[in-house]
Design goal:
binds glutathione, about 210 residues, 2 domains, Glutathione S-transferase Yfyf (Class Pi), Chain A, domain 2
Length: about 210
């Protein structure tokens, strides 16, 4: 399999899922500041021109973090990255995955594109405050849930944690203060220490 990723972006969740699963894969970096063959290939494989894209063993190009993570987990059920079909734990894990993809990820998005939203500094400032309020609402929800839990699903690390860790890690890049979230901070440290996560951070050039 091949994963097209850009360093530190949401595609890192799939990179983490692959590494945690122990499946064999090749990671291919795309960098929008360096138009090259990888970027051309990505744009051919995904009409939306965004990462991640996973090329499966059958040669199919899959897009969307949530779908790719589910495929990875199901290829390696013994990794316990996702509970079996039909189980309540699977539904709960997918609910968290959906929350991270549709709610949390998208609440950060305006903070990365303020210039594109408006050239006006006062408009940018208003959008920034509005976006940060949304981010904090979602972070507070996760922080409360993590009280007394190691991971979103308790003791078991799942694909939802791959995506949550990745997105929460953006806080330092966009000035989202994390002081009010002791459970989430402890969680980020816990996930950071996992050997597979260290390997991905090293590969993406993001080790502290
Ligand atoms: N809903 C999509 C979101 C994909 C997405 O937003 N990818 C971003 C990185 S987090 C990207 O490739 N951005 C590059 C660009 O827009 O130029 C998914 O889950 O895969």
């Amino acid at each position: 399999m091949k994963l097209y990723y850009s360093a530190g972006s949401c595609s890192m969740s799939c990179h983490m899922g692959l590494e945690e699963s122990g499946l064999k894969y090749q990671a291919i970096q795309v960098d929008w500041s360096k138009p090259d063959q990888n970027l051309a290939d990505l744009e051919r494989l995904n009409p939306l021109g965004v990462v991640p894209v996973l090329i499966t063993q059958e040669g199919k190009a899959l897009t969307q973090n949530a779908a790719i993570l589910e495929v990875i987990a199901d290829l390696k059920p013994e990794s316990k990255l996702l509970a079996p079909v039909g189980s309540p734990d699977r539904a709960e894990t997918l609910a968290w995955l959906s929350f991270v993809a549709a709610d949390l990820h998208k609440s950060y998005s305006p903070l990365f594109g303020l210039q594109a939203i408006s050239p006006s500094e006062s408009t940018q400032s208003e959008v920034r405050e509005w976006a940060k309020k949304n981010v904090h609402q979602h972070l507070a929800h996760v922080d409360a849930h993590l009280a007394g839990r190691d991971y979103l699903m308790g003791k078991t690390f799942t694909i939802a944690d791959c995506y949550l860790f990745t997105v929460v890690g953006w806080s330092k890049w966009v000035g989202v203060k994390m002081d009010a979230y002791p459970n989430l901070n402890a969680y980020q440290d816990r996930v950071y220490q996992r050997p597979a996560v260290q390997a991905v951070l090293q590969a993406e050039g993001l080790l502290d």
